[in-house]
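A reminder from the course coordinator: this example appears on the midterm review sheet, so study it carefully.

Given structure:
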């Protein structure tokens, strides 16, 4: 990822990938009274916080990175369940 805007978009794309119903997700970042940041994905269509919520870190960038990592892991789990695999790097060189 080259920037925060691209990371935010990829988190949303990953969210859309595993959403069952139509969704209206937003990414928000909060700062609690202890000074910790939390990155949230909130689905406004259901008026509830999605399961990707609440990644906590010392900086907003780190919280967003944790949320990004978690969203990528959930996509990989879905791909594994569907038995879809990308070619490995060694396969791509042949």
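Designed residues:
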């Amino acid at each position: 990822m080259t920037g925060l805007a691209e990371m935010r978009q990829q988190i949303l794309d990953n969210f859309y990938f595993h959403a069952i119903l139509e969704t209206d997700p937003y990414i928000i970042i909060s700062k609690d009274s202890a000074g910790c940041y939390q990155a949230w994905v909130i689905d406004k269509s259901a008026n509830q916080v999605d399961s990707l919520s609440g990644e906590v870190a010392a900086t907003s960038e780190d919280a967003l990175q944790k949320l990004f990592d978690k969203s990528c892991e959930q996509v990989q789990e879905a791909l594994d369940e569907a038995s879809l695999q990308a070619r490995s790097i060694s396969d791509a060189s042949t």
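Residues 4-79 form a domain with the Double Stranded RNA Binding Domain fold (CATH 3.30.160). The mean pLDDT is 82.
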